[in-house]
Amino acid sequence: MTAMPLALLRRMRTKRPDRGSGLRIPLPVGAGAFSCEIMDPVGQALGGVEVTVTETRGAARTVAKATTDPHGLFLATLEPGRYTVLLTGSGLQPNRLTVDIAPGQSEPPRRVQMEPSQQLELPPPGTWLFDPPHTAIRFIARHVGMANVHGRFTRFRGGIHIAERMEDSRVEVVIDASSINTGNNTRDAHLRSADFLDVDNFPEIHFASNRFTWRSGPKWTIQGPLTMHGVSRSVTLDTTYLGAVNGGYEQELRCAALATAELHREDYTLNWRNMLARGIAVVGPTVKLELDIQAMYRSHNTPTPPE
């Protein structure tokens, strides 16, 4: 489902002191709605906060992503189920909510007050290994000119080497191209074929960074070549560092980050030109990539993540 126009929410919401009557919005049959009103640390409406809604079941795909409007509002219609809502903004602590959507449900906007980001302590120098059960590599591609196809790669390895000077750090990811999964066996077989990834000849997708640049607060830019389908192109990962904690299988030290990038399909010679009626390309020109990473500090007693 998709985010609805926020002007509609502004027209239909009640005055701020009284939200008891909820939102009266048209809903698709069998769907529900989630809305939130984001406030800054002093209680004023906060626009420009990024809202990412992700399913908690199955492939954990992102189903809605947008920023709050100037009034701090966000609204999306969703299929019934449980979702994780991640709120992020420059200079603010990330805020994560869990919401349950029921058919026909349209609750008043959930008011969330963001807190200023504390100076997150950077992870200590050393090697950090990706924890696959708690790491996801997802993508979104346009299909037949209108709908989005969501997928993920289920097999990968890699890690981060944190240097004494953070700007000298490195990250490397190796993805098994044949592990692509969009939830449709016929489509996945086609994506593995010579028309697209050609996994028999190019079994791996590889990224190795060559530059870390601090932007503001927890925001970093990570640049480096991405090699896919036998072609290397420089890409930029817009990265939000989410902090480091002790916790997990054996209370080991781990850190987390969320990184996004936009890839241009034709940069990698993925130029399959079979056209549908009226000349609509089967796959759009860009692919959005998202890496939701947890990594464990490697030491002599670091546990091996389960398969």
TrEMBL record:
<protein>
    <submittedName>
        <fullName>Polyisoprenoid-binding protein YceI</fullName>
    </submittedName>
</protein>
<feature type="domain" description="Lipid/polyisoprenoid-binding YceI-like">
    <location>
        <begin position="127"/>
        <end position="296"/>
    </location>
</feature>
<feature type="region of interest" description="Disordered">
    <location>
        <begin position="102"/>
        <end position="127"/>
    </location>
</feature>
<dbReference type="InterPro" id="IPR008969">
    <property type="entry name" value="CarboxyPept-like_regulatory"/>
</dbReference>
<comment type="similarity">
    <text>Belongs to the UPF0312 family.</text>
</comment>
<dbReference type="InterPro" id="IPR007372">
    <property type="entry name" value="Lipid/polyisoprenoid-bd_YceI"/>
</dbReference>
<dbReference type="Pfam" id="PF13620">
    <property type="entry name" value="CarboxypepD_reg"/>
</dbReference>
<dbReference type="Pfam" id="PF04264">
    <property type="entry name" value="YceI"/>
</dbReference>
<dbReference type="InterPro" id="IPR036761">
    <property type="entry name" value="TTHA0802/YceI-like_sf"/>
</dbReference>
